[in-house]
């Protein structure tokens, strides 16, 4: 048998990439569990020492991306707790894209199940709000619509109105818009999150009926992303449009939720805001 046959088979690039990610997520690295060891020149620094550097910097960079997406969550729990939580989250949700704007969608659900944060029952919904705020901020602009042509439509009830790409809807039993607002930079107002949330829990936690919920519209105007409280009728109308219902069906759904509801005023309001961006 030739000497070449005895040579170790080289690691493929794909396997090396898998080994690199595994080492970054393996916690404390040792000589025995460092998968990259055989592909690293360890004459100057051990394989586990070198991979430890990559491990720390990789997790720190991904945690920073989460901090940019979830700044209110970080304020609510504190920087140290947030960083530790991010480390746990990253270990089970490694980025699947090189674009960090795509990362973090599972974080709200993770918070709800994370043992050390379960008692903060409002965190998931605050995180949901931050995630859709992030999505709205990055969304494409709506296409131009010539609204004067709407006057020529004879069967307006059969129209399907279109929402702008930046529009997102969310409801919650917690005052997540207030929590978000009072945790913005430069806001010096004293806002007792625990007090407000506890009052809200006592009043509504066991009663999740629609009239106990807050309904929020998140959308972008130019470069500004807006969080706007809306009525249950408005929320239902926009949600029906989002789901592809025609105008007649959307009206029925909205008025079922809120009997005294002006469809004309609602339509005018959301067209002027750019929330409803077109029709087909």
Structure description:
The chain contains twelve helices and five strands. 48% of the residues lie in helices and 10% in strands. It has a three-stranded antiparallel sheet with strand order 2-3-4. The N and C termini lie far apart (73 Å). The protein has helices at residues 3-6, 13-24, 47-69, 71-77, 79-92, 107-113, 123-138, 176-181, 193-204, 232-242, 247-257, 263-273; strands at 161-163, 168-172, 214-221, 224-230, 276-279. Helix 4 crosses helix 5, helix 6 runs antiparallel to helix 7 and helix 10 packs antiparallel against helix 11 (247-257). It folds into two domains: 9-120, no CATH class; 140-280, no CATH class.
Mean of residue pLDDT? 86
Oligomer description: single chain
| Gross morphology | elongated
End-to-end C-alpha gap: 73 Å
| Secondary structure category | mainly alpha
Structure summary, number of beta strands: 5
Annotation field: number of helices: 12
Q: How many strands, which pairing sense, and closed or not: the largest β-sheet?
A: 3 strands, antiparallel
Our estimate of the beta-strand percent is 5-15%
Number of domains: 2
- The helix/strand series, from N terminus to C terminus, equals HHHHHHHEEHHEEHHHE
Write the layout of secondary structure elements.
Layout: H1 3-6, H2 13-24, H3 47-69, H4 71-77, H5 79-92, H6 107-113, H7 123-138, E1 161-163, E2 168-172, H8 176-181, H9 193-204, E3 214-221, E4 224-230, H10 232-242, H11 247-257, H12 263-273, E5 276-279
Antiparallel strand pairs: 1-5, 2-3, 3-4
Helix pairs in contact: 3-5, 4-5, 6-7, 10-11
């Amino acid at each position: 048998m030739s000497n070449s046959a005895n040579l170790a088979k080289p690691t493929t690039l794909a396997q090396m990439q898998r080994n690199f990610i595994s080492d970054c997520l393996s916690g404390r690295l040792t000589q025995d569990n460092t998968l990259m060891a055989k592909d690293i020149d360890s004459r100057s620094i051990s394989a586990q020492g070198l991979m430890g550097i990559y491990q720390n910097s990789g997790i720190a960079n991904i945690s920073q991306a989460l901090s940019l997406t979830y700044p209110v969550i970080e304020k609510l729990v504190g920087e140290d707790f947030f960083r530790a939580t991010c480390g746990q989250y990253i270990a089970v949700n490694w980025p699947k894209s090189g674009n960090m704007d795509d990362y973090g969608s599972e974080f709200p659900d993770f918070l709800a199940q994370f043992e050390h944060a379960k008692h903060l029952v409002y965190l998931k919904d605050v995180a949901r709000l931050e995630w859709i705020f992030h999505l709205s901020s990055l969304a494409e602009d709506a296409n131009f619509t010539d609204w004067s042509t709407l006057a020529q439509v004879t069967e307006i009830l059969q129209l399907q109105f279109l929402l702008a790409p930046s529009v997102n809807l969310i409801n919650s039993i917690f005052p997540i818009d207030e929590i978000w607002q009072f945790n913005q930079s430069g806001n010096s107002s004293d806002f007792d999150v625990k007090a407000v949330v506890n009052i809200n829990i006592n009043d509504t936690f066991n009663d999740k009926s629609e009239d106990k919920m807050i309904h929020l519209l998140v959308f972008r105007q130019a470069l500004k992303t807006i969080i706007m409280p809306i009525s249950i009728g408005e929320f239902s109308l926009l949600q029906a449009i989002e789901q592809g219902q025609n105008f007649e069906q959307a009206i029925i759904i909205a008025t079922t939720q809120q009997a005294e509801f002006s469809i004309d005023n609602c339509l005018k309001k959301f067209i002027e805001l750019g929330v409803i961006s077109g029709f087909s």
